[in-house]
Amino acid sequence: MWTRLLVAELVRMVTGVVMTERGVGKWLRRYGFSPQRPDRRSYRQDQAKVDAWLRDEYPAIAARAKTENAVVAWADQCGLRSDTAPPGTSWAPKSQTPIARVSSRRFKVNTMSAITSRGTLYFTVFTERFTAKTFTGFLDRLARQAGRKVHVIADRHPVHRSKAVTAWLKANTERIELHLMPDYSPEPNPDEPLNADIKRHIHAARAHSADDLAHETRRSHHQRQPAIVRSYIHARHVRYTLQ
Q1: What is the CA radius of gyration of the chain?
Q2: Is the confidence at residue 99, as pLDDT, over 80?
Q3: Which residue(s) pair with 73 in the sheet?
């Protein structure tokens, strides 16, 4: 990641030519550079493991699902908190900042969702902690609603790797298989854009209670029609799912 000041300093050190910030910007554009917001990556992410997963593991999962006439679904969970969410934006006359009345109470709701490449969305909203019981209950309902075997792809959350979940999966191998992605690598999961979209459209700070926030979260999920869900899969980091 390069800033114009840094590029100007490097040019000065290497060539002795002093350039202004504006001049550096023109020079960079001339050679095909543009200002961009960098993607965030965990410093713990092992890119070699991510590449191997995309190259070898996912194609194997997709091939098995096709042979078994099964569904591939990407799953993830997220939380929405009243004390950390911004109240959103609004229109107002210049120099007259609008006031949003928000709750001073601290509460949170969690949601677990799964999407398919055809735009099907499965979800649950809950106010308690995310536990093995919650996760297996979601998987059980997912299998029943899909009406056939489901290959679920998810991150390596401790709950996903717990003994209780492992035992449940062993007893339900004909209905559900769980495949875990590499550590610290949420980018290849197309359910992540869904979570980001939900957080953008729910003003958690305006909810008066956990029940209000849970209702708004459910309503927002119901509004995600198949065409919208499919659009998440066209995001740059998850286009591999279309192959």
Answers
A1: 22
A2: no
A3: 152
